[in-house]
Design brief:
The chain is α/β, with parallel strands linked by helices and 358 residues long. 39% of the residues lie in helices and 11% in strands. The chain is built from 9 helices and 9 strands. The protein has a 7-stranded mixed sheet with strand order 1-9-6-2-5-3-4, with helices on both faces. Helix 1 crosses helix 2 and helix 2 packs antiparallel against helix 3. The protein is globular and about 60 Å long. The C terminus is likely disordered. GO terms for molecular function: 1-acylglycerol-3-phosphate O-acyltransferase activity. It holds the Pfam family Acyltransferase. Keywords: Acyltransferase, Lipid biosynthesis, Lipid metabolism, Membrane, Phospholipid biosynthesis, Phospholipid metabolism, Transferase, Transmembrane, Transmembrane helix. Belongs to the 1-acyl-sn-glycerol-3-phosphate acyltransferase family.
């Protein structure tokens, strides 16, 4: 009896909050949002705590840089089931390339779920220094995460240089978010990219792999936390061989254009002003009304001149887009692609990973 009591009591204690959350979730959309959010954060806290012990054990056996892989897969295995959200990954074979700089679009804290599904072996993350004191901090530190002090330019550049040396020496990949902050809207879009990840890749001479997660605004946003399937597409590696620091701006724009096109391709279309078709125009009358009697005076023909449309230059200011004189850049440049690259902000200490906001 005592053995059964030891087994049944913990299950009873666990089942009570689960039943309560399920009841709240079924009550209303708002209740579902907070119930799902509680489950998600609770799962994250539990797995993060367990990840500390995993990090200690794997560090002792010399597999420190596989900690993220094990903890990420564990989190996805639990969270995907309790939240009923599945992640489908296309192009996962590209992640076998190592070392690389992986760059992804950053929408919200739910990104941790897709990272849990696709995060490869022998990989770590680059994060802002403040995350050292978050629930993720302990195992991030023991798993080899590179922390960057965004408020100190010299330290930020030093962290990038040290990360590049370690990546080449140990064959480690890094995951970075070049947007610098979370960004999720109804219509798929990307913020301007900061160049830290691309400086790191060029200076270390390692490829860049774009990782694009579809816009999941329909599943998760403020007040909404639903279920469904999220698509992630891993693009082929972009080589940085032969590139120099002067090529970084064009490389940044090139990768962003590829990611933006992929984001719009794999995301579920939403109803918005940008996607609505213009109203159909009434058909032109093709038949003239009958004339009772012909005009005795012949009408003078009226010559109608068609409007002349002047040639429009490809750029609004008529200037040509500067190009970098490298064979790699020429071979990767996409003809006719229009970049939405915005005004660059301060490019020092720009790296932010796994920001804990919703």
């Amino acid at each position: 009896m005592s053995f059964l009591a030891l087994l049944i009591k913990p299950l009873a204690y666990i089942s009570v909050p689960v039943i309560v959350l399920r009841t709240i979730a079924s009550a209303s959309p708002v209740g579902r949002y907070y119930a799902q959010l509680t489950i998600y954060l609770g799962t994250l806290a539990v797995v993060s705590t367990w990840g500390v012990f995993v990090a200690v054990g794997m560090t002792l056996v010399g597999r420190r840089h596989d900690v993220n892989y094990v903890v990420a897969r564990s989190f996805y295995a639990i969270a995907s089931r309790v939240l009923d959200i599945q992640v489908e990954v296309e192009g996962e074979e590209h992640l076998q390339t190592c070392p690389v700089v992986m760059v992804g679009n950053h929408q919200s804290m739910l990104d941790i779920l897709y990272l849990g599904r696709m995060f490869p072996r022998k990989a770590s993350i680059m994060a802002k220094k403040e995350l050292q004191w978050s629930p993720l901090g302990p195992w991030m530190f023991m798993s080899g995460a590179v922390f960057v002090d965004r408020g100190n330019t010299a330290k930020a550049h030093g962290s990038l240089a040290a990360a590049g040396d370690e990546m080449k020496a140990k064959g480690i990949s890094l995951m970075m978010y070049p947007e610098g902050t979370r960004h999720c809207q109804e219509v798929p879009s990307l913020l301007p990219f900061k160049k830290g990840a691309f400086h790191l890749a060029v200076e270390a001479g390692i490829p860049v792999i774009p990782v694009v997660c579809e816009n999941y605004w329909r599943i998760y946003r403020k007040g909404v936390f639903g279920s469904g399937t999220i698509r992630v597409r891993v693009l082929p590696p972009v080589s940085t061989a032969g590139l120099s620091v002067s090529d970084v701006p064009e490389l940044t724009t090139l990768v962003r254009d590829q990611m933006l096109a992929t984001l719009r391709e794999i995301s579920v279309r939403v109803t918005s002003e940008e996607d609505m078709k213009p109203a159909e125009q009434p058909e032109m009358q093709t038949e003239l009304p009958p004339v009772a009697e012909p005009d005795p005076i012949p009408a003078t023909p009226v010559e109608v001149a068609s409007d002349e449309v002047p040639d429009v230059p490809s750029d609004e200011d008529g200037s040509e887009t500067p190009s970098v004189d490298t064979s790699l850049s020429r071979s990767l440049r996409q003809e006719g692609s229009a970049s939405e690259y915005g005004t660059e902000t301060d490019d020092e200490g720009m790296v932010v990973v796994g920001r804990q906001h919703h």
